[in-house]
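Course assignment 3, question 2. Fill in each field.
Student: A.L.
Task: Predict the tertiary structure for the chain below.
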Amino acid sequence: MQYSFSKLLRKNLLYMAFPVVLVLSVLLLLLQQVSRLEIFQTGTMEDTTRVKEYFASGQRNVSVMLPGLKSTGFSQMANEKEKAEYFYRMEGNEMQLVLLTKSTANAYRRGEYDRKAIRVRIIRDEVAARHIEREYANSLGLTGDSMDGICSVYVFDETEYPLMRVRILRYSSIVIAVLLILIMLYVILATAFPALNHEARVLRRFGNVGRIIRRIDREMERKLRYHQDNVTVTENYLIVSYISHIDVIQIDDIKYLSKHVEKRKRGLGRPVHVYRLTASNADDLFFEADFFDEETVNDVIYFMRGEPLLEYEEYVQKEREEEENVLAEQMSENEKEAVTEEDQQKLDGLFEQEEPAEKPTEESTEEPAEEPTENAR
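Answer field:
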């Protein structure tokens, strides 16, 4: 299989871009669905006599032109401050109430909304309508039921229109759509020109990015020494790729190379051995990579060092023999240390006190003296 640094850049780019595009697409779709809710929909009302129909149909947010407004003299208060002002206009024999914010009310007085639509929300407020009716009747000196029902209970309320939420929803949709377009353009350009890839920024310290990418591509094609999982070793470069970034180290820059072993937990499982490869020099190079397989980190070190006098199998066998020799020496030292000096002295004393066994004596050759017999007498 042919390996290429350009392909590696493209693959990591897709790995990074795909979840971002997916999340943004889902979010944009969600915003589009939310924007279809009644609270965020704004219709256009051309005939204000249909206010009751709009309210009954659920279309409460409307854009409507309301010329000829006159102040009622009543205001809406909040925290002892004037929040909005009531206006009215006559539509046939009916008085329509309009509640405007202070800024919009001042703009109406200046004539800025004579030919300009305003966005309001239709609400039903019978309490306010009947209160204004009674106040007008009292101020005009009218009695009885002469003004009952003249004021419409449907109010064009600007303060209830969800202007901020509608703007946030609209601007959020626009921003996400623009981000999606920019990401797609970036993916297309970075795929066609790998030097534009954000991950290629690690090559700037080696010189021209485009030239270095082409050099690494040639080495991975013709001078590849080792490739396993996310690790690649060429004649001049060590390349370790992750989903989030790619590390590229020039082997000639490495002055110190070491391997450390430590225990670490992987999720909720038992601790496992982690083999950390560290490469550095006296300047500003410091690189670390963790491996969960000792054979892999040994392979990487071997192919980075390069030992042309030994085949790889011999190199592995030599390492095993060295480990066995070290283990045998440690066991020998442990056995020697097991016999203490005091015990050794006791053993030496016992050997000195012990004498060789006596040889058996030869039997006497002399005959016993004969007893005198009667004849001898």
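Instructor remarks: The two ends are 129 Å apart (CA to CA). The first helix runs from residue 5 to 35.
Grade: pending
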